[in-house]
Every structure is written in structure tokens, then in C-alpha cells.
Design a protein that fits this description.
Responsible for synthesis of pseudouridine from uracil. This is Pseudouridine synthase. Its EC number is 5.4.99.-. It is built from 7 helices and 15 strands. It has helices at about 20-30, 30-40, 115-120, 155-165, 240-245, 260-270, 300-310; strands at about 5-10, 45, 50, 65-70, 85-90, 95-100, 145-155, 170-180, 185-190, 195, 205, 215-220, 225-235, 275-285, 290-295. Helix 1 (about 20-30) packs across helix 2 (about 30-40). The chain is elongated and about 80 Å long. The mean pLDDT is about 95.
């Protein structure tokens, strides 16, 4: 529940007959828009009675009571157990999880949903305090719409070692992607810089002035409407696989944002891109041993792949 600050004032003579939203703006220092929202949310009382609307007039001497909710910090980590997050491995240095679709890795200004760091806090995991407050311990990210295996640092030492490993590209990141059509050649490397899309700030695109981005792919299965690819990332840009496959004119099945066919998406029952982080390999930050963790396809991706395999 959100906490609210109650403020009570008697209406002065100078505001006799004034609209309630105008009076609130002057008395409480809120904007008229905010005042209207508080009235609509039934958070304003005049002499104990609910206000009929923002244009209701006030009488001098009336008691105006307003409950102003505390502003929520969009970057605050809210501890809550997230159904569907599986712990693949846990030790003193790292925790490896299987992230479900629809969960962000950490809070951000535009995200109001569940997060990996919120789940770990709710489940009692102590993770590294290195990094920005809302993404402490985070050494890699997966999109909200991408599922699969990822590692989070628990110790400060593990954080610095893994951060460097990702930066120096010594981590083996393997994804499976179901893409429309058949890439030609069947295996290859996409070396094309990626930058923020010039028209849509939520998208990325291959841009001449973008950041160096390299994706390796090979075809595992070729079907009538789509191909299942194994993808290895050399760099780790936001939306990298989705942008590169879209640039090849073979977007991930279901990835409407990057040009996928909505009819095919509906046919296979997908509401997100068919993209899954299947394997993660790296040197363990404490032992130095090479470790590898895997994740199987979630139900929605497995079903979509079955539909594609059965299509004639």
C-alpha cells in the first residue's frame, strides 16, 4: 500500500467562491492537473464530504482535507517473489537464474512490472552492492520479452571479475532464435553497428554511427515458414539479435516491433519474439573453472516451434 500525507487547511476568505482545483493549487502547491487527479481518486474532502468535481466552489471557513500519496521512486527495488524465476545455480559468488518472459532485470523509469533484482531481494538473496543502486550485482541483461539463463554477482569480487569478462567478451552467450524465412547463407556473421532508432526511441537499428556489433549464427532447422538458429553474441548491444535479424529481413518470429508478420505470430500463438538464452559459459569468478549453465525452452516458445515444425 502506498503511504499518503494528509494535509488539512481552513479555506481563507480570499478563496471564498473559488474552484476547488484552483484553491488546492494555491494552498498546497500542487498543479491544477495534479489537484484534478487527487479529486478523481477520491482523495479530497470538504468538511468531511467527498468532492463532486474539480469545479466545485469553496466557501470560506470550510475545512479542506487532502491525502497526497507519497511519490514512488521508479528506480526503487521492490522486494517481491516473481513466479516463474528458477534458480539454476547458487553459491557465495554468483546466482544463475532462468528468467521468464515479462520480467525486467532491474527497475527503470519506464517499467512498472516485476524485476529480477526485486525477486532476489524478496527471496532473501544478498547480492553485490556494486553498480547503480537499482541494478546492483547486475553484470548482464536480457530484454523483458526475452527469456533464458543469466548470471548475477553476489560478491563484490565476482561483480568486478564478471563485469570485466563481459566487457572483454570472454563469456560464451548462446541463444536460439526462430526467424522468419531462411537466412542465406545458412550460417554467417553479421557485423553491423547498432544505434538508437532515429524516429522511435524504444527501438534500435543498424546505423552508420552506431556501436560496433557482431552476431554469429548457424541454422539448426529449416522449415517452410521459419528457421531455428543458434546465435552466438560477440558483443552485447540492446536488442542486438532482434535488430541484426531484422536487418537481414529475417526477423524473429513474433517480433512485431522489428517487422515480424503478425499473422504468423498469431498462428503460432506468440505475443513476443521467439528468442531464448539457452546457454551461458564463463570462468567462475572464485574458482577459475569454466562453468556452463543451460535453460530449456519455455512453453510458449516450445509450442510455437512445434506449430512451425508441423506446418506443411
Amino acid at each position: 500500500m502506498s503511504t499518503a500525507e494528509h494535509r488539512t487547511l481552513s479555506v481563507p476568505e480570499s478563496l471564498d467562491g473559488e474552484r476547488v482545483d484552483v484553491a488546492m493549487a494555491q494552498l498546497f502547491g500542487v498543479s491544477r492537473t495534479r489537484a484534478a487527479e487527487l479529486i478523481a481518486d477520491d482523495r479530497v474532502r470538504i468538511d468531511g464530504d467527498a468532492v463532486s468535481g474539480k469545479s466545485e466552489r469553496l466557501l470560506a471557513g470550510s475545512v479542506l482535507d487532502v491525502a497526497i500519496p507519497a511519490e514512488v521512486d521508479p528506480l526503487e527495488v521492490v522486494p517481491e517473489i516473481v513466479e516463474g524465476i528458477k534458480i539454476i545455480h547458487d553459491d557465495d559468488a554468483i546466482v544463475v537464474i532462468d528468467k521468464p518472459v515479462g520480467v525486467a532485470v532491474h527497475p527503470s523509469p519506464g517499467w512498472r512490472g516485476q524485476t529480477v533484482v526485486g525477486h532476489l531481494a524478496g527471496a532473501g538473496f544478498r547480492i553485490s552492492t556494486s553498480g547503480a543502486k537499482e541494478r546492483e550485482g547486475i553484470v548482464q541483461r536480457l530484454d523483458v520479452g526475452t527469456s533464458g539463463v543469466m548470471v548475477i554477482a553476489k560478491s563484490e569480487h565476482a561483480y568486478s571479475v564478471l563485469k570485466n569478462a563481459f566487457r572483454n567478451r570472454t563469456v560464451d552467450k548462446t541463444y536460439h532464435a526462430l526467424v522468419q524465412g531462411h537466412p542465406d547463407p545458412l550460417e554467417g556473421t553479421i557485423d553491423a553497428p547498432i544505434g538508437r532508432h532515429p524516429k522511435f526511441d524504444y527501438k534500435f537499428a543498424v546505423m552508420d554511427d552506431g556501436r560496433h556489433s557482431v552476431t554469429h549464427y548457424e541454422t539448426l532447422e529449416a522449415h517452410r515458414f521459419a528457421s531455428l538458429l543458434e546465435v552466438h553474441l560477440e558483443t552485447g548491444r540492446t536488442h542486438q539479435i532482434r535488430v541484426h535479424m531484422s536487418a537481414l529481413k529475417h526477423p524473429c518470429v513474433g517480433d512485431i516491433t522489428y517487422g515480424a508478420d503478425p499473422v504468423l505470430a498469431r498462428r503460432v500463438g506468440l505475443e513476443r519474439q521467439w528468442l531464448h538464452a539457452v546457454k551461458l559459459g564463463f570462468e567462475h569468478p572464485e574458482t577459475g573453472d569454466y562453468v556452463e549453465y543451460e535453460s530449456t525452452y519455455p512453453d510458449d516458445l516450445a509450442h510455437a516451434l512445434d506449430v512451425i515444425r508441423d506446418a506443411h
